[in-house]
Amino acid sequence: MIMNRRTLLSALALLPLATCPAADDFLTYEPKGDAKGKHVVLISGDEEYRSEEAMPMLAKILSERHGFKTTVLFSVDKDGHIDSNNQASITNSAALDSADAIIMLIRFRHWPDEDMKHFHDAVQRGVPIIGLRTATHAFNMDKGSKYGAWAWNNQEGGFGRIFLGETWVSHWGKHRAEATKGVIEPAAKDNALLRGVTDIFGTTDVYEAAPPADSVILVRGQVVAGMEPGSAPASYKKKNKAGTEQDVNEPMMPVVWSREVKNESGKTNKVLCTTMGAASDLVNESLRRLVVNGVYWGLGLDVPASADVGYVGEFKPLMYGTKDGTDEKDPHRFRGFKRGVKPADLK
């Protein structure tokens, strides 16, 4: 069959529609000031902790304050609106092909294999990874996926356990009732990742976690009996995963740790993981600084003495949750994501 010139030109004109991502379903921030020549990709996609609000905020800080190019990826619906419940969606996954570092706050995603390949290949290149909160249970792959070994409930604990050092275990503190006070591990007080990090506090509860022996514990989480920074330490016993009963704060669970992991390709991924990191946690300056420090450390750059983590624009995140937030008897208004918002609206 011979294609005439007009038909050929018409076919070529359609190619961008098929191969290019929608321009408004992801965000890119060009570096400001002293550009570092590095590209940080931030991946949002969780149903509860408002990663769709946290990731643009962090991306702006990294671009405006620190000279990194940043790209933020989202879960969206068929019309391009942010839909955190769409576990199969990730926008512009091809951006991961040029990622020098990844920051991720995702939960139970089951992206198509063609999207997973971009993420998988980036990991195999040895890019540094910063995993926040539910990144420990990032994936719940569909049956038959080539990447099923990375599902959170895989025998080896999936991507979370293999790379970050833990998968989902349990809420150790009482969910939506007991917050977390960060306590710096004495042996880690001079660790570069903790430069300028002093008073970590977040309204999310402590997760149960037992990172492997090759992890460097940086911060432990004190379970506090309330949701305010001045809340007293909680004191009660519960059984851990091993079936041993212990006081919730003796010993305190790790909430921040680092690792260096050799992947299947033989490259090493520098990893920083924290089980904190909801958007509402990241109003805490020290927690934001920890994430920024993690980027510098992961990329082999000198970590600033006290990294500038001032907001670029306004940041007033929703409290985490999955409800509609209209219950006036709920003092914290735990609620889900804002409807009708496109990524471009967050620019």
Automatic annotation (TrEMBL):
<dbReference type="InterPro" id="IPR029062">
    <property type="entry name" value="Class_I_gatase-like"/>
</dbReference>
<feature type="region of interest" description="Disordered">
    <location>
        <begin position="323"/>
        <end position="347"/>
    </location>
</feature>
<feature type="signal peptide">
    <location>
        <begin position="1"/>
        <end position="22"/>
    </location>
</feature>
<keyword id="KW-0732">Signal</keyword>
<dbReference type="InterPro" id="IPR029010">
    <property type="entry name" value="ThuA-like"/>
</dbReference>
<dbReference type="Pfam" id="PF06283">
    <property type="entry name" value="ThuA"/>
</dbReference>
<feature type="domain" description="ThuA-like">
    <location>
        <begin position="44"/>
        <end position="297"/>
    </location>
</feature>
<feature type="compositionally biased region" description="Basic and acidic residues">
    <location>
        <begin position="324"/>
        <end position="333"/>
    </location>
</feature>
<protein>
    <recommendedName>
        <fullName>ThuA-like domain-containing protein</fullName>
    </recommendedName>
</protein>
